[in-house]
Amino acid sequence: MRKLFGSGAAPGCTDGFIKKYIPAAVLISPKKVEDTEKEAGQLTKAISDYKEYLQGLIATQINKEARDILETYLDIADDEEFFSGAYKLIKNDKFNASYALSLEKDAVVEAFAGLDDQYLKERALDIENVCREIIQHIQGVNSEKFFQEQAIAPEKNKKWIVLAQNLTPDVTLRMDSDLLAGFVAEQGGLTSHTVILARSLGIPAIVGVEGLLAEAKDGEPAIIYGDSGELVLSPIEEEKERFNKSKDSDHFLKYVYEKDIDMPAVTKDGVSVLACINLGEGGREKADKRRASLNYSDGVGLFRTEFIYMSSDRYPTEEEQFYHYRLVAEEAEGKEVIIRTLDIGGDKQAKYMKLPEEANPFLGFRAIRISLAKQDIFQTQLRAILRAGIFGNVKIMFPMITNLEELRQAKEAVDQAKASLDKEGIPYKRDIEVGIMIETPSAVLVCDQLAKESSFFSIGTNDLIQYTMAVDRMNERVQKLYNACNPSVLRSVQAICQGAAAAGIPVGMCGEAASDQLLIPIWIALGVKELSVVPSQLGRTKYTIRHVSIEKTKEVLPRVLNAPSISAVIKELKALAEIEMGGIM
Amino acid sequence: MFAANLMIKNPSGLHARPASGLVRLCKEFSSEITIYYKEKSINAKSIVSVLAGGIGQNAEIKLTAEGSDESEAGPVVISYIENLTD
User: Fold this and answer.
1) Were both Cys, which of A22, A132, A172, A198 would link to A10 (CB 3.0–4.6 Å)?
2) In the beta sheet, which residues pair with residue A17?
3) Contact flag A117-B54 (C-beta cutoff 8 Å)
4) Do A81 and B24 make contact, defined as CB atoms within 8 angstroms?
5) Cβ-Cβ contacts under 8 Å, A112 against chain B
């Protein structure tokens, strides 16, 4: 038995068998061939095999975006003119097929590099990927074997724990999710897309495990603890017992938490807060699930609008947006729905947006900065939200506000949208509340000014931690600092609550820290009135709220705010939780 | 031979979805369909060539079709390009 440790990335514990994902390497060396016709035939076969493979994949994709990407690849594989260059190199220069294709690929990639267009640069990458896949077909190497093996259970009722250097979302999606127990990666940040995917699929994950691939053997049994970041290889009997206990307590906890999901969010000593949910998907799909969690919540504390933009191949129209906003406003049946305007940047954008590539996207052109610069897009969205406002308790929220000027400009845009609707005689919510996200140190420092001109604040803890601690959450060497328990983060929340209280506006919180069991009593004691969490955390969040005492929390608050380190804060909070909730955590 | 000059009006030009659509449409015809842009002559049935052509909004192009179905292909392709909105 061996144990390896990394960072817990997605919670839960699971057992399974090790399966390593190691992408096939391609070796391309120039050779002279005698039988050029046979060589050309190999290229033809490789292309047609690859096309067949793509068509098979397309047929099984439900996700439209995934299908579109695959169809683009099929178009490239179908391009006779492009491949004719490689055939000529085989015929005239007697090069082997792999080398001929790689020369042709290099020439095209070079031509694209000269075009100086971000969108086209990405297409060059697609062409490279297609060529690499075809060369893999020629050489008979591919990752298919991995996917095929992964789709077969290691033992009856058992699943795979997939190990990799680094997992990309597309590789993750191609795996058989029914047989994927969890995954462990050598690299990767805690908030990478793959980790987010793991959380949404409900599978445990660990990242940042050094020496992982060298140590673990394919096919050996293993246990992973996604909370603590522990990987146990070939566990002995005692470890298996520990796992079974832990698994039982997982189930027990789920049961305990879910019991509280339809109870009001009131602390033991009578402090009432709102327990809301974050939503990021609309439309008729998944509507039942969404309505169920809405039913148990006090509203939608954060409605992300990015999905409407990301799932389209052009800017969504006012009508398309209105449809989504109205649907959720009606479903909420009078509970609040806070709609956040477009929060997107150069690192996460739809292709048609053509935002420039930036060296520091998190310090760059993003969120409200884009909306203020592209008024036509902003107006379309604001009009759609204003119109949806008459179908429920809709509020507008701006992301990434850093000073009063930006807030005033954004509010002016709302007035402009109202004026244009008035002019056209279209009904909308006239007295709509307009609030902002507080997620930069700059906004914290001037929150007293911002509070006077906002209807509410919502603390976006993910970005607030990142900007306050000056830490890239994707960088595994510094991600230990990425923690809401930093005294500076706690003091920022304190300052925000004080600034809001002076102006008499409410403060909500919608980052991941809003569902952190240890911190929930602190947030409420500091004055946060609304916790907005992902639907799957609603039961646990309500359970925690209902078991804490704010009076007792206020006793430890000075010690927490003056603690010297993250670990000292955690120690104080654990002691508090022990008293309040006993072992139920 | 069919030949016509036209200007690309849609914002994303012959990139992305419009390019894929153009190539798929041209492949339905047996005629050779060529786009002349700047000094380049671009095979309209080749997605790699069309993309590498970098034909953006406001580009002035010449389109030709040559073959047995040229009189049908030319107008159909022109109308596809003129009706692009992306």
Assistant:
1) A198
2) A160, A221
3) yes
4) no
5) 51-52
